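Final report, Chapter 2: Outcomes

The project's central promise was a pipeline that accepts a single protein chain and returns its three-dimensional structure in a standardized token representation, suitable for archiving and comparison. That pipeline is now operational. To close this chapter, we reproduce one record exactly as it appears in the project archive, with the input sequence first and the structure output second.
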Amino acid sequence: MSTDAGSKPHAAPPGGEAGDKPFIIDVDGLTKSFGDKKVVDGVSIQLRQGHVYGFLGPNGSGKTTTRRLICGLLTPDAGRGTCLGFDIHDTASIKPNLGYMTQHFSLYRDLTVRENLEFVAGVYNIRNAKTRVTETIERMGLQNRPN
């Protein structure tokens, strides 16, 4: 907090007390298109450690795509940045250090249990994915339930 002579206390200005914490996310100019549709257009964000943030906006405004770009789950068409100190293009470094869960946990309904597990294993570059998925399915007693 800081004060001016004769005034009430007010919050520290940007770069003050709160500005001493490092940025955990620092991205500039993120852009992503799917086909001819640009879904993220030049997004720049700086988020400091020790705070809680939220993305607000209508459906289709690019919130999920932006989060996926920051987390290394998608590659931006343009832009630069860091997440947890790692370059957002260095997905192999980001993924093991970051948890990501959507608002509603879901599986892909058009995929089987095996296919869902193999997809997630692929996202996280799990070694021996097919063998580990088979072991997991057997451990859960799901080997006789193909879907």
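Archive annotation: The longest strand covers residues 23-34.
This record, like all others produced under the grant, will remain available to the consortium after the project formally closes.
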